[in-house]
Design a protein that fits this description.
The complex is a heterodimer. Chain A is mainly α. Helices cover 33% and strands 0% of the residues of chain A. Classes of the chains: A mainly alpha, B mainly alpha. Chain A: Complex I is composed of 45 different subunits.
Chain lengths: 198, 128
């Protein structure tokens, strides 16, 4: 239960820390050192943050308490070295599936304050991936889509291999292939050009 | 709809879920009550802060802080080179460098040989 006073206490401690560090030590301290070095005892302490994989039952109980979950709900990610630590593995359900009519603390995210956040929460928000039930089951939808795309690809491929167009020929011009218009000598008799055969 | 099959991105609708009709054991009820107790505690904390007339600053969400810490700063300390992680690292970090080098090199060498032999067909016109 973090009170309201701790926030102003943190800011005052931060300012005091900055001033003393700047005045007493010669080297200008980096902001990260000041922030971590001087702060009030309230606020986010290190034991409230995620840590390594819980190995003993006491660590598991402490982790479940930290994440505001019951002990049987708390399931950490398997310890395969991929960097999850003790973060809980929540069911892969998108925010689309949550009750739209309940008074959530954050209505657009359909989430309450303090509720443990899914590891891929930003993927499961209501603008993105949706895991809610589909009107037809997924395999039918996938097969229909792939069937349609495959059929269109097949037909386009066949059309490339066996093209079928209207027959065309080069354009045929009259008056002996436009002899005079092309700058032919009007005195000379042009050779006759026949575009037909009998 | 009795043949509705679930999938990773399509969950079962609540009306077709058999667990909704059959779960009446005391253990289930006790665990539901424990969860409800936790939820109501969090709700109480949040509403106390929200409706406090003397509050001037934002309400911090420790769950959000933990999430950010877990995704940002807690990954490297808990990383361990195992067979799986080394395979993923090699497959996505090291292999594309070599594969793309060879693909581009062979493609360009073929095109260069064609240009030198004079058989290369320019796909686009430089001047019309």
């Amino acid at each position: 239960m973090r009170g309201v006073e701790c926030q102003s206490g943190k800011m005052a401690a931060l300012r005091a820390g900055l001033l003393t560090r700047a005045l007493t030590k010669g080297k200008t301290p980096r902001i990260s050192e000041i922030v971590l070095g001087t702060r009030a005892a309230s606020g986010t302490t290190k034991d409230m943050l995620p840590g390594p994989y819980p190995k003993t039952p006491e660590e598991r109980a402490a982790a479940a308490k930290k994440y505001n979950m019951t002990l049987e709900d708390y399931k950490p990610f398997p310890d395969d070295g991929q960097g999850h630590g003790d973060y809980p593995m929540l069911p892969d359900r998108s925010q689309h599936e949550r009750d739209p009519w309940y008074q959530w603390d954050h209505p657009d995210l359909r989430r309450n304050w303090g509720e443990p956040i899914h590891y891929d929460f930003d993927m499961y928000i209501r603008n993105r991936v949706d895991t809610s039930p589909s009107p037809v089951d997924w395999r039918t939808m996938r097969n229909s889509l792939l069937g349609f795309l495959g059929f269109m690809a097949l037909m386009f491929g066949l059309g490339e291999m066996f093209p079928s167009y209207q027959p065309v020929a080069p354009k045929q011009y009259p008056y002996n292939n436009l002899y005079l218009e092309r700058g032919g000598d009007p005195e000379k008799q042009p050779e006759p050009v026949n575009h037909y055969e009998i | 709809m009795a043949d509705y099959k679930e999938a990773p991105l399509a969950t079962r609708p609540k009306t077709l879920d058999p667990a909704e009709y059959f779960n009446l054991s005391p253990e289930y009820r006790r665990s539901e009550e424990a969860r409800a107790a936790l939820r109501s505690q969090l709700k109480r904390q949040y509403l106390l802060q929200l409706n406090n007339p003397h509050r001037q600053e934002l309400i911090d969400d420790p769950a959000l802080t933990r999430w950010i810490h877990a995704r940002g700063k807690n990954v490297y300390p808990n990383f361990r080179p195992t067979a799986k992680t080394s395979l993923i690292g090699g497959l996505f970090g090291v292999l594309p460098l070599f594969v793309l080098y060879f693909v581009f090199k062979t493609d360009r060498d073929k095109r260069e040989a064609k240009i030198k032999a004079g058989t290369y067909e320019r796909p686009y016109k430089v001047s019309s």
